[in-house]
Amino acid sequence: MTIPVVSIAYHSGYGHTAVLAEAVRAGAVEAGAEVHLIKVDEITEEQWTLLDASDAIVFGSPTYMGTASGAFHVFAEATAKRWSGQDWKDKLAAGFTNSGSKSGDKLHTLQFFQILAAQHGMHWVNLGLHPGWNSSEGSENDLNRLGVFAGAAAQTNVDEGPEAVHKADVATAEHLGHRVARTAAAFRSGAAAA
């Protein structure tokens, strides 16, 4: 059985989202995937080819002004070449984001990723976790402490650097990477059996 290939296509303006991308990578590697980190603002033709050959693509961006960053939007528009041929149809997709506020309209960024994936005919992999930190017995150290279902969401204070990304948010991103890799492996096995 061949191992699944997961690519993480992300932009990070100040390094916080890069921390999450590394966490998604770690989770996917731990689950047995071959993983590629691709900075969308520096993407090469070779990396486009890696995306085309991937079983799953995980989208990542900070949330700026209620949506993905401008650099990620440029990448998303460039995927139109893949859209016209449905080159990414039936691949898996997932997403993660970070903002300075607890809400910060991160859900809109994740929904932007979901719509991008849907336009490509991809299958969305959600976080698959109950919300954390929503009872008196919960804590800010719970997985999915921000209670987002669509993907991995993180909050980092705007006056702190990448080292301040909350450990629970890093662990949640690792969980997402693990889930994507395991789902990709199951899809691969199913396709081989068919």
Automatic annotation (TrEMBL):
GO terms for cellular component: membrane. It comes from the Bacteria. Residues 6-154 form the Flavodoxin-like domain. One of its GO terms (molecular function) is FMN binding. This is Flavodoxin family protein. It comes from Streptomyces lasalocidi.
